[in-house]
Design brief:
With 180 residues, the chain is mainly beta. The chain has one helix at residues 18-25, and strands at 27-37, 55-67, 76-82, 90-94, 99-104, 112-118, 124-130, 133-143, 146-155, 160-170. Strand 2 (55-67) and strand 3 form a beta hairpin.
Length: 180
């Protein structure tokens, strides 16, 4: 059995530039995501027998690849896929002017455009507006091999849509034991 895991980046922590942040994201990640349905129009979210249809959790494994920039003035991009279904992957291309573009490799859905902000606390925020809502995705590292992610959708009328929270742990290679 081959070991396809990766090691944590050998870079300063936390990453201080968008390129460093994107490079830090590369690797294989085990993810636990909790999703929440925050609003169902004017009425309260429906509840079933268990009383928790507004909430669900799922595990997954992500493969994130850093994409080298096309010019030295640009920060690069990311290709993100699940381990269970590596295609279609989603490609995010970042621009130095604070914009990004997201598209699925098979073009099964239209791409989206938005803007990014790398905050002084080392978190990356992605904002996409369209379809009557604004989606804010915030990603931050608490340790080199642990990152957290929150996503919140707000409808244009200010009402809540959906939200999710993920904790993602990087798969790392085991050190090679010293030879005797």
């Amino acid at each position: 059995m081959s070991d396809t895991t990766t090691s944590a980046p050998e870079a300063p922590f936390p990453p201080a530039t968008i390129e460093a942040f994107l490079r830090f994201c590369a690797g294989e990640w085990m993810s636990l995501r909790s999703q929440f349905a925050l609003g169902a129009g004017a009425e309260e979210p429906a509840q079933g027998e268990t009383g928790d249809e507004w909430h669900s959790s799922e595990r997954g494994e992500l493969i994130v690849e850093f994409l080298e920039p096309s010019t030295t003035a640009e920060p690069g991009g990311l290709r993100v896929a699940t381990k269970a279904a590596p295609l279609p992957a989603t490609t995010l291309t970042f621009s130095a002017d604070g914009r990004f573009h997201s598209v699925q490799a098979d073009h099964s859905t239209g791409g989206s455009e938005g803007h990014w902000t790398l905050w002084p606390d080392g978190s990356l925020e992605l904002v996409v507006s369209g379809g009557g809502a604004e989606l804010r995705d915030k990603i931050w590292f608490t340790k080199p091999n642990l990152r957290l992610r929150s996503t919140v959708e707000t409808r244009l009328d200010g009402s809540p849509g959906r939200a999710s929270f993920s904790s993602e742990i990087r798969r790392v290679s085991r050190p090679t034991p010293p030879s005797t």
